[in-house]
Design brief:
- It is built from 20 helices and 14 strands.
- The chain has helices at about 1-40, 40-45, 55, 80-85, 90, 100-105, 130-135, 140, 150-155, 175-180, 190-195, 225-230, 255, 260-265, 300-305, 310-315, 350, 360-365, 385, 405-410; strands spanning about 50, 100, 115-120, 145, 165, 210-215, 220-225, 270, 290, 320-325, 340, 370-375, 380, 390-395.
- The longest helix has about 35 residues, at about 1-40.
- The chain starts with a helix and ends with a helix.
Length: about 425
Amino acid sequence: MRNLFKYSIFPLIIIGLLIVFSETSRGASTHGKTCLDCHPDLQKKISEEKSHTPVKDGNCISCHNPHTSNHKGLLKNTEETLCYTCHKSDKSGGFSQTITHDPVKDGKCLACHNPHSSTNDNLLIKKGGEVCFTCHLRDSLMTGKESHPLVKKGECITCHAPHSSTNEGLIKKGKADLCSSCHKVRGKLFIDAHSGYPVEGSNCSSCHNPHSSDSKSLLKVSMHQPMVKKDCTLCHNNSNSKNPLKLINNGANLCYNCHSNTKKSFEKINNHVIGNRENSCLNCHNPHASDTKYLLDKREEKVCFKCHGDTKSRMTAKAMSFKHPKLEDCSSCHSAHGSDNTLFLRAKEGESCNIGKCHEQQQIFSHPVGTDIIDPRNKKEMNCITCHNPMGSGYKYNLRLDPDKELCEQCHRF
């Protein structure tokens, strides 16, 4: 009797499951059909070649609330949270490496992807590199007469990871490995072009712009003079030696062989002879070529922010509504090598705001400042930065406090 019961109940369970499954599928389909009654334009999207799985299944309510929502488009949650409901493995894996693309970091998936359907792979809103050129304008990348073939074709993801990477610039491999994926770095033509030096393991972008240049070989704009003259032996051993890339002198002394006058600029109370490099010059400068002035390794503010991350955090804080117009030109106020003034200023605190006659008018008509005007709080002379924050502030004119109440009261209540 027991066996009879066991064998008779099993088919009933199977039938029950099939009914539940069919009802679930029908329910999802019904939801989709109901939505399409009012959103007929989505019907075309659903029938396109590449559709998002919930759209294809007519399961609109997996992302949308049919009645009300606190989010645009009646979404059930924020864009980021909603996408990661399904794409959990991406968030913890390929999207969470050291360097993250800003749209990924900000949870702006729809900046690149269409949530419903697309004629492009991966539901991209545009084809290939055209998506990238939405933010990274083509004209800003192709500034020279010559451009890298992949840039011309818009094949950005050949070199760059679109979401995150362990490498700077979101590149997929280390710089030498990336370039050698296409370029025959051990071939005679390549070696001859580099004066016989074995540079296959070097950082190609230290001399070449990976996107565009006026040079046929995509060399950077500003070249170190030994490079211009192709006289590598001013810094390195001969290319035929056992160790051709070895430097002929140690540390900054190598640079001082030619830049003897620069050495004096470091002989100040405050100087930038710091860093964990054997040659502190290389903390900021590229010894071969650069697209910036003074052979800086990157744009000036990026060079400075490599060490001054705390300053970057303050400058980019949301509360900093008002910022100094020359904020990205650090050397307009600070001396890069060394200074006898506090904070590496090019002039004393009270005079630094008038460098290059920037605030000349304010030097004549302003609150009294100078050695005779003493701040009652700290007994020091008042100057521009007593009231103004030169980096930025939440108040107009970069004032440190609310000018209508708190600021003046700091002194005038004594």
